[in-house]
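Retro notes
What went well: the complex prediction finally ran end to end.
Inputs used:
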Amino acid sequence: MARLRIDGISKRYGEVDAIRAVTLDVADGEFVVLLGPSGCGKTTTLRVVAGFAEPDSGSVALGERDITQLPPWKRNAGLVFQNYALFPHLTVAQNVAFGLEMRKVGAAETARRVGEALQLVRLEHFAGRLPRQLSGGQQQRVALARALVFHPDVLLLDEPLSNLDAKLRQDVRVEIRELQRKLGLTTVMVTHDQEEALTMADRLVVMQDGVVRQVGTQQDLYERPCDRFVASFVGRSSFIEGEIEAPGRFRSKGGLSLACTPATLGPATLAMRPERMLIEVAPQPAVDNCLPGVVEFVSYLGATVDMHVRISAKERVVVQIPNRAGQLVPKVGQQVHVAWQAANGIVFPGSPSS
Amino acid sequence: MPGRLSAPERRKGRQIRSGVAQSRRLGRLALKGAAAVALAYILTPLLFVTWLAFFRQEIPSFPPEGYSLRWFLAIAGNDRFVAGFLLSLELAVIATGIGLLLGLPAALGLARARFGGHEIASSTLLLPLIVPGIVLGIALYVFQVEAEIATGLPLLGSLGGLIAGHVLIVIPWTVRLVSASLIGLDRSIEEAAQSLGADRWVTFRRVTLPAIRPGVVAAALFSFVSSFGNLEMSLFLVGPGRTTLPIAIIQYLEWKIDPTIAAVSVLQILLIGAAMLVTDRFVRISRMV
């Protein structure tokens, strides 16, 4: 295993910038997830690392080697594809042995390592089967064993779970993560699934329009999103547009005057996480912001309840309240108060279009 | 709440349902009938030829005077048929081989590379299928005459010239059928092989080729059949003492109409039928074409 350094890679397809100046440093044994909507450049980034796309500029280094110019077959990177990409005409054992065969590993050694790898993914009894005789989850585990058996310097996972059903996805998630920790694999995974990214990653890279928006841990991204896109893509946020009219004072387009954290004067967007606000019947003078509002929509999610509350003619926020015993759950049309401390609002300077 | 239906309503519902089922049954019957007619249309001449091959009398007439295998024995004694069969076989095998060697890379290139004139190249490779065999034969003949005059090499009527012509007519089959199987190929298995350490050639040999094997086998079969049965073009390209089986048949027919020809045809049908059956064991032809 080795450290992976991606340094300022850009790639254009015709007139479109697939990725622009993407820089990323993945430590030895670290699990990094590239997260973003489709078309954000995360897959292109992975393909550049794997060697299937040649960057127009920038470099990729694996350990001490600069691999930017190397063809895929000389990179020693283990790849797992969304559709598994198992060789349909080879058995499970032959699939797993393929990488060893390419490296001219002897027959006895190959048999031993294939056995180990299959044991690792708990498929030792399926060695003689053909891929089409396995379920999706089993096929994905074969793909994983195939990518690991030759001791790659880096493991690259391209949406590995999106073809599995929801229940299985949760199991395989844990399985991959445990395996990755146990073997100390330097891993880069691509996904558009926020929950998947949050549960698996050591560090996340949020991408949009071919650019890295923010790199950080789950907490970094959730507590301190760097812009409106990250605040909406990682977790949920209610946004209120307006301007900072005085230090610590935010005036919304709907005319509300709100306490906020210090920020430069001018146009700004205020973002609030749904669980950082409270719903109260009576006004709460002790809380920085407390606004009267009307419940317009309620969605009951079991453990929690989402309340959509209109707080001005132009603004509506979503408040998530825990569904505890004795918890007040207002009904649609009911008058309530929405309260939050200034520190729980995140201010993004600039108008929303920028 | 689904309301209860009155008795007359229920009866009406049943009638409608049975009406739908009845018209569906009729439709299926019509389809089967049409298929049977088409099949009979294709098979009748073959059945008659086969029947004829076993007639005892020399001039085919109905009803048969008796049955015998003498015409099959006559083939073995006829040098022209034996030599023609061997030449056609040799020609078809060689042309199929060369056709695959040329057509496979061409199909790969067409499927993978994007270049100017892509469409033109693609259509040109299918052209020999569209140009009438006579035209193709004359064109090749004239070309060989001119080339022989220009270079002094003995091209006219040579085996090489004949093979070259047959390669021309098998290439469209290879390109067409291999291209079809390449379209269905999942490129990510090739990328998987490369990520595992296989260079382009190894990837092709170990992953791409096995995946498109049905297309390649079907291409070989159709190439073989189209070369083996070719008459019009071969007429212009054969040389003295070098006669393919279809030409031998035509030449024989100029003098005689005895059932030998029918017997030859039966053998030909059997050969090609056997080739198809063998091929079908490897790939389902009906799925390929």
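What we learned: The CA atoms of residues 180 and 187 of chain A lie 8 Å apart.
What to try next: split runs per interface for comparison.
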